[in-house]
Amino acid sequence: MRLFILAIALGSAGAASAQTAPTPQDATPQTVGDLRGGYQPSAPLFSTPPQPGQPVIFVPNPLTPAQAYPAPAALDHYPLCKRGQFDKCRQRGG
């Protein structure tokens, strides 16, 4: 019984080491278009940091969130959803 358990333990340890895959040589990250992405500003807000004692005035954005980030326009036709698809489609039935 002990030999049987030892054989299973050695067999499973050998299989685990065989599952490691080599890393690809070309491991550069893929970027598309703008490197900044999202809503990150294209330039810093200030050219230099504010001086000590200088008043910093906060002015909130007058736009509502719906005005600042409008929803995309609706499609003319929504096809039926395929398996695993959840966006830009409609559910079957009903």
What report would you give on this structure?
- The chain has 94 residues and is mainly α.
- It contains two helices and no strands.
- The relative contact order is 0.05.
Question: Count of helices?
Answer: 2
Provide mean pLDDT, rounded. Answer: 77
Order of helices and strands: HH
Ends distance: 61 Å
Uncertain residue segments:
none
Structural class: mainly alpha
- Rg over alpha carbons: 29 Å
Described by the principal axes of the CA atoms, the overall outline is flat
**Biggest β-sheet, characterized?**
none
Tell me roughly what share of residues is in helical segments.
10-25%
How many strand elements?
Answer: 0
Q: What amount of the residues lies in strands?
A: under 5%
What key attributes describe this structure?
94 residues, mainly alpha, 0% strand, flat
Helix-strand layout with pairing:
Elements: H1 2-18, H2 65-68
